[in-house]
């Protein structure tokens, strides 16, 4: 019996999920329309959590999808691909995400630390996967790029602590502008 030959595709990742130990969504990014509504996505996430939270496996086939996952303290990380997707590729994405977060959070990969650093998570996922295409699998490169992108945050999106460090420089510049505008050398 001949099976149809599938065309190779760069679009390997269908979703990246992070759930807490109750199965509630902390982060979800879907790259196709397999689950178009939030209601369908949440139902899928509950189903996936119920099937995986008590097992020590790293891979599951669920609803025609390949799911690779990892748990740590109070978080569950999932990378989802189609049923014919290479599990090793999906696992490389999962390990890169987990190792990148581990470095960024100084080995403190838990719910509270993740919620305090969501911008780093968003940037890391964007560096690893874009539109379902795997861009990077080296956690060192991801952490480096996230650090570079983090330096370019606009003033309106920075935290109070970050802005507070800028205040002496801003004050110095305003004093210089006042001196120049008053005609003083």
Automatic annotation (TrEMBL):
Source taxon at top rank: Eukaryota
Protein name: Coatomer subunit zeta
Broad class of the protein's primary localization: cytoplasm
Keyword ATP-binding: no
CDD domains (alphabetical): Zeta-COP (cd14829)
Listed GO CC annotations: COPI vesicle coat; Golgi membrane
Entry-linked SUPFAM superfamilies: SNARE-like (SSF64356)
Subunit comment: Oligomeric complex that consists of at least the alpha, beta, beta', gamma, delta, epsilon and zeta subunits.
Domain AP complex mu/sigma subunit: 12-150
Originating organism: Gouania willdenowi
Record keywords, A-Z: Cytoplasm, Cytoplasmic vesicle, ER-Golgi transport, Golgi apparatus, Membrane, Protein transport, Transport
Job of this protein: The coatomer is a cytosolic protein complex that binds to dilysine motifs and reversibly associates with Golgi non-clathrin-coated vesicles, which further mediate biosynthetic protein transport from the ER, via the Golgi up to the trans Golgi network. Coatomer complex is required for budding from Golgi membranes, and is essential for the retrograde Golgi-to-ER transport of dilysine-tagged proteins. The zeta subunit may be involved in regulating the coat assembly and, hence, the rate of biosynthetic protein transport due to its association-dissociation properties with the coatomer complex.
GO biological process: intra-Golgi vesicle-mediated transport; intracellular protein transport; retrograde vesicle-mediated transport, Golgi to endoplasmic reticulum
Annotated InterPro entries: AP_mu_sigma_su (IPR022775), Coatomer_zeta (IPR039652), Longin-like_dom_sf (IPR011012)
Gene responsible for this protein: copz1
Keyword flag Protein transport: yes
Protein's cellular compartments: Cytoplasm; Golgi apparatus membrane; Cytoplasmic vesicle, COPI-coated vesicle membrane
Topology relative to the membrane: Peripheral membrane protein
Family: Belongs to the adaptor complexes small subunit family.
